[in-house]
Write a structure and sequence with these properties.
The complex is a heterotetramer, with 2 copies of chain A and 2 copies of chain B. By secondary structure, chain A is mostly beta strands. In chain A, 8% of the residues lie in helices and 58% in strands. In chain A, strand 12 and strand 13 form a beta hairpin. The two termini of chain A are 41 Å apart. By secondary structure, chain B is an alpha+beta fold. Among the domains of chain B are: 100 residues, Rossmann fold (3-Layer(aba) Sandwich), CATH 3.40.50.20; 70 residues, Dna Ligase, domain 1 (2-Layer Sandwich); 93 residues, ATP-grasp fold, B domain (D-amino Acid Aminotransferase, Chain A, domain 1); 37 residues. Chain B contains 18 helices and 22 strands. Chain B has an 8-stranded antiparallel sheet with strand order 13-12-9-10-11-14-21-19, with helices on both faces. Chain B has a 5-stranded parallel sheet with strand order 3-2-1-4-5. A 3-stranded antiparallel sheet of chain B has the order 7-6-8. In chain B, a hairpin with a 5-residue loop joins strand 9 and strand 10. The longest helix of chain B has 25 residues. Chain B is globular. Classes of the chains: A mainly beta, B alpha+beta. Chains A and C meet through strand 4, strand 5 and strand 6 of A and helix 2, strand 3 and helix 18 of C.
Chain lengths: 169, 501, 501, 169
């Protein structure tokens, strides 16, 4: 069975062609890779490919289909898409509200202040929330002109990485 | 003799101090906030006591709580580490008033060096060169304007109570004098509760070079040579090395003597650091003195062969220094890289969170001083520095090669770190040549934050690995559907220490 | 110039060699057996090739397979590490015949030093003292009896091809001469395929002290001082230190010169070790020369400040030595403890198996050279040494204190290790005083294998922890009964690398 | 509910008296321990008791009820016994065959040779199997006089730690 795998902006067609224990033959788009691939530690794989030794780290990120993948010098966001997911995604796209903008926290932290309130008109670049972590404050700004539709956190709240904070419409 | 030390700190420095105590057979007492119950310093100490909520002003900065623990446990000395209460003269005084030993200088020495204008005056009196500028704080806008013109543009306007780059403004043009002065004053007021301001000539292409000193209570003062700390980002040191690739040996000798004079001028006791600013022609000027152990002290330890914490304890015990100046020389070359939990590709945004996996570098010439481990959640309340990598080599080239190798081995997943950024520094021409100054990072920003080219293979192997992991999970899940109970046991057993009991 | 090195070895020494190669910008090629696909040396190298089944005589000892990989990958040199093919003159010859560089001495030097009787003769000629005994192998029982009486009881009967204590018998009384001779002969035949036997005077209270030497291809030979290796168990070194606490400085200088003479006598090239046996009066005698890197080389690296692998590679490149004899001095004190996967409480039974959890010691003066990691299964085919802990201190007392601290921090669970046994050595009076000889372990066996007393609290806390872990599991399992799918995912994700894909 | 916990040769009665997050009050026989106990890493607990900081390692050994527990200098075999296990054990004891002796391998290894065969009479101290690991051979000897009832492994087999090798009756 062929899967679609999204890696950053690219979508690759991937298929397991053959397997004998840790000797794998995997097709990525038009290239067939014969690799010796084995898990050596939690989230760490060792790959031998054309004699070269590669170490690849996987970190599941948010779902069992999504990974941050680190090779020696690069980091990729990879998502494995199976048939079910693809279908669900197509359906969802049509019913998703257009034009919403979510302000997310890129890191865990503490909400210092929210200088806007629900219903406020805001313009691009205006600070809508300030979050602090490790003795450093970061201001998050509106990415579009619009109205504050929802404020999902309160001052003093501890927030997680990637959590929705504010919705602008 | 000191038999039990309370360490009024957390993180790597608390553990580092405890290590030397343990080697000397001295018992240790840790204190911890709500965010630190699982932290390594709590587990490493012989005893550990809770002192309050996560924010440091409710725990690590509360003198009363720390004194209570010290007395309750019968500790006979307190080591303040760096940061927190380490340069608070009130704390030093309080510790001694209660009959305990403060492992650090006298409150007087801390006060004198803590006020930058007083420190400048003291240094001028002692014959140590200072940056041309005012001897007094600037009272009025008019006086300021006049003084700036006398000193000559460009200048730095600085807070007298300052430190860490706060309350500091550079002025290049006349019309900026008044706005910069006001901004510095208000920032100083905010940060230190004191808006006293002074002015110094701005040194172009500056190097930040500091000297480690040790002083005992018998009048002996020695220096342990310099540390070059010019690789900085937002006035925060990122990489330090010793010897400095810049200094001529005659300048080194002269600076060392001046560092000793600076310490003598305040009747210094214990370990301290005299910071100098050095220009391209190797003119040097006293900048400030840090009256405590520095983050970067390990490179000195490695090259000079002295355990600075043990020396601090010996001095606190009233013993004379173990070393004479003539015993000390620099042997080989050492570099420290500070590992921060920050995202270099996103403006160095802090990245607290859960450490999933760590591989520490090992082998010849490698020392790591850290405090995080797999399954540890880095709290968001404290400093983002999670580890220090200290490398020794027989010469500078050897040390750089080894640092590259060690950074290559160092893997931390789960949070973003500056490891790759540090690798780029080690590959950067200006660093390799040793010709860098404090503008190094801004001058090389593009190179330092660029990604290494990777052929398509890399990306495809990333795809293959994720794909294979995913399909293995699917297979595994299918075959495991009916063994709930067993898996619940196993899953529990394997879970890392992130569960709040 | 060497650009790519094949490392014909595994375990910690393979990784250690690769580290120095990486620091020098040299590419590395690993070879691995079926038991080692997950091993660190495979992951650390730039390239890695499979060479056969787990038993070393079907993989790591098969010259043809290793030569095939070397040629296929275009490696220009082979580093043999220690053990395996490192002292096989046929291998050294083959490598050079195929046009590659052997990072080690010539086949001739290996042969001469490999045959103990030839080595003795060569040393006598070079004026290096040897243990009184025979210069030739013993042919008949009668000749043997006569020779033993001439040398004088007690004596050691040794295999000429010997090493590692095999084919070796001590004889104290006359009636034991013939039986010991026969036993030694048959053991030698079995182990080395050669039953040639010779006899040496038995040295009472012997110390085992060795000198590190380096020789280039331009006729320069230097020594890097001694290593005291008297802490042994079954002729296997357990703890080594430098400087030796025994040696007077005049003896040290003299031995160093003799070590250099020994190397010169065989036109030595590269890094080697000259082993001496030393009696209580500091009379010393040549014992043998190891024509390769030693396990314990890191203590020399630390105290003398030289990377021995880099020097090996420089020498192999035909460069002259980086150091002159007068450049080298001993700086501080270093101790190495070898960590074995063995059960000290069960007659040092090997303990292969799965590593569950490791905490490595860190901080000032600590180096670990190991190759195991969490989730790694130590194979049962190879040596039980899994790690080396190398400590530096400003003096011997400081080094012992630091070693104790580091062993205290070092935790390996899943397999039994000798860590606690080593801690006992560091607490043992004879070791602390530095008055020990090769009988140290048998003389202190009871102390070394005794358990530390623990008050009842310890035991009750063990009970409490296990109890609490168990009831938490029960709670967790109950609440998780209905979330099979989720758990299967999580369980998979958390599983350590023990799954055979 | 009180449990029985076996620690080496001792059996202790253990009960959780009170709990507030990581503050536990646990009774062991007649002593009540108020401890701050928290899991810090996989298999590693930190305990604060009377101000002292203890680190305790747990390794599950063979069953979810059995642990090897390492404190600073000591290692204990600990087994938690619940009511069900106790019952099962009492029942089993009565039906267990008496007088059997199992030779187990204390470590993983490879069977080098088995110098006895099924039905052989053996006496105490006689070598019945030789196992090698890490280049060292170990001889395992009969602990009682008897007859070889069963040989569960063949020469050349790889064996696990604690695996039954030979049964003597």
């Amino acid at each position: 069975m062929a899967y679609e795998v999204n890696v950053d902006d690219r979508t690759a067609k991937v298929e397991l062609a053959a397997r004998n224990e840790n000797q794998l033959s995997i097709k990525v788009d038009d290239i067939t890779y014969d690799v010796d691939l084995i898990r050596v530690e939690e989230g760490v794989y060792s790959i031998l490919y054309n004699g070269k030794s590669y170490n690849v780290e996987l970190i599941e990120s948010g779902s069992e289909r999504k990974y941050v993948v680190n090779t020696l010098y690069n980091s990729y966001n990879v998502e494995v898409v199976d048939a079910e997911t693809r279908y669900r995604r197509i359906r969802n796209r049509s019913i998703m509200e257009e034009g919403e903008s979510h302000i997310k926290s890129p890191m865990p932290g503490k909400v210092v202040s929210v200088p806007v309130k629900k219903g406020d008109e805001v313009s691009v670049g205006q600070t809508v929330i300030i979050v602090s972590a490790m003795k450093m404050e970061s201001e998050f700004k509106a990415k579009k002109d619009g109205t504050i539709k929802d404020i999902l956190v309160n001052e003093g709240d501890t927030v997680k990485g990637d959590q929705d904070l504010i919705v602008i419409e | 003799m000191i038999e039990k030390v309370l360490i009024a700190n957390r993180g790597e420095i608390a553990v580092r101090i405890m290590r030397s105590c343990r080697e000397m057979g001295i018992k240790t007492v840790a204190v911890f906030s709500e965010a630190d119950r699982r932290a390594l310093h709590v587990r490493y100490a012989d005893e550990a006591y809770f002192i309050g909520p996560a924010p440091s002003n409710e725990s690590y900065l509360v003198v009363d709580k720390i004194m209570d623990v010290a007395k309750q446990t019968g500790a006979d000395a307190i080591h303040p580490g760096y940061g927190f209460l380490s340069e608070n003269p009130g704390f030093a005084k309080r510790v001694e008033k209660e009959g305990l030993i403060f492992i650090g200088p006298t409150a007087d020495a801390i006060s004198t060096m803590g006020d930058k204008v007083t420190a400048r005056k003291t240094m001028i009196k002692a014959g140590v060169p200072v940056v041309p500028g005012t001897e007094a704080t600037l009272e009025s806008d008019e006086q300021a304007k006049k003084t700036v013109k006398e000193v000559g543009l460009p200048v730095m306007i600085k807070a007298s109570a300052g430190g860490g780059g706060k309350g500091m403004r550079m002025v290049k043009t006349e019309e900026n004098i008044i706005p910069a002065l006001r901004a510095a004053r208000s920032e100083a007021k905010e940060a230190f509760g004191d808006d006293a301001i002074y002015v110094e000539k701005y040194v172009t292409s500056p190097h930040h070079i500091e000297f480690q000193v040790l002083a005992d209570t018998h009048g002996n003062v020695i220096h342990l040579y310099e540390r070059e700390c010019s690789v900085q980002r937002r006035h925060q040191k990122v990489v330090e090395e010793t010897p400095s690739p810049l200094l001529r040996d005659d300048v080194r000798q002269k600076m060392g003597k001046d560092a000793v004079e600076a310490a003598r001028a305040v009747n210094y006791r214990g370990a301290g650091t005299v910071e100098f600013i050095v220009d391209e022609d190797q003119n040097y000027y006293f900048l400030e003195m840090n009256t405590r152990l520095q983050v970067e002290h390990p490179i000195t330890e490695r090259v000079v062969g002295v355990d600075l914490v043990k020396e601090q304890i010996n001095i606190a015990n009233g013993k004379p220094l173990t070393y004479r100046q003539e015993d000390l020389k620099q042997f080989g070359h050492a570099i420290e890289c500070r590992i921060y939990a920050e995202d270099p590709n996103n403006n160095f945004m802090p990245s607290p969170g859960l450490i999933k996996h760590i591989t520490e570098p090992m082998g010849l010439g490698v020392r790591t001083d850290g405090y995080v481990h797999e399954g540890y959640e880095i709290p968001l309340y404290y400093d983002p520095m999670i580890s220090k990598l200290i490398i020794w080599g027989s010469d500078r080239k050897d040390a750089i090669g080894r640092m590259r190798r060690a950074l290559h081995e160092y893997k931390i997943t789960g949070v973003r770190t500056t490891i790759k950024f540090l690798e780029k520094i080690m590959q950067c021409d200006d660093f390799i040549k040793g010709t860098y100054n404090t503008h190094f990072i801004e001058n090389n920003y593009e190179f330092l934050t660029s990604n290494e080219d990777c052929d398509e293979t890399c990306e495809d192997l990333a795809v293959i690995t994720a794909f294979f992991d995913y399909i293995s999970k699917v297979d595994h899940m299918k075959s495991d559907r009916n063994v709930t109970k067993l898996n619940a046991w196993k899953e529990f057993g394997r879970r890392k220490g992130v569960m709040r009991l």
